[in-house]
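Good day; I would like, with your permission, to put a structural problem before you. A protein sequence and the structure tokens that stand for its backbone fold form the material at issue. The record follows directly beneath this note:
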Amino acid sequence: MSDVKELPPLRLRVLGALRGEPDWPAMTAEGLAAYREAENRRRASRLMRVITGIPDRGAEIRWREVALPDRRLRVRVYRPARADGHLPLVLHVHAGGMVGTAVQSDWLNSHLAARLPSVVVSVEHRLLAPGTPLSCAADDGWDALRHLLEHAASWGIDPGRVAVAGESAGALIVALAAIRARDAGLPLRAQVLANPCLDLTSTMLDHASMTEHAHSPTLSVTQVEAFRRYAVPPGTDPRAVSPLHADDLTGLAPALVVVPTIDPVADHGRRYAERLDAAGTPARLAEHPGATHGLVSMPGLMPQARTARTQLTGFLRDHLTSGER
């Protein structure tokens, strides 16, 4: 193995230097709220399409609400412009535990809707903040999935052909949903985890990739530590929201784990794929040299995003189109 350290592309390093990074350790609740509002407005802007990609014209996109017994969730729904009958469902959870919006994933999700074809529902879950730990976001993902399956006919989906897909913190949420689905007897066809953060225990920083890529331009270890601080309040069992440390990974939906190599959490994905495989759950690891965290959300900066999207689409097609009703 070469001793030469892998570096992000120059354009990403320049962008990271220009944008800078918030002072995460010193950030107050008010500061987080203000930063989140500004950042999500930026991510949803038309100008950001240069980075996040142009949506597929073969898909219709609109916001809807999921009415749960104790709350309402906004979801962003992607549906093929031309498709008949009940379609497969892909439940998606966007990246960004403290900030983030489903809009930033339009490039990927519209493509999945148009090209599988399928109905893709991306959950606008509660974001981390003091008093809103990761367990709330995990419940949003799980409750949205259950609601969609219980009301499949009204959503135009086939409850027998369902997959989950998530990015970064969203990958953690859907990994937990896959475990809960198995325990509840709800069959999933597949799970896709892109640049997943899967370990929020005291060992989360012990992985070699955390040291090697601590200052990645799209995710730093300082940001990962802030994520953990909000996600797992004192007194919380971090194993409950750390799929990498789940006791039982048998009988889960087949997984595709997409890992950009220049990523502090790259080893989270690698180790999870190994654990799934050891438990007898089919797991495919797809590494992307030269790519950084946020791979499939930033096609304008990372050409590897198109390769990853092709892999992801093919994997889901293989698992969702067999046994059509």
The chain has a mean pLDDT of 94. The first helix runs from residue 10 to 19. The radius of gyration is 18 Å.
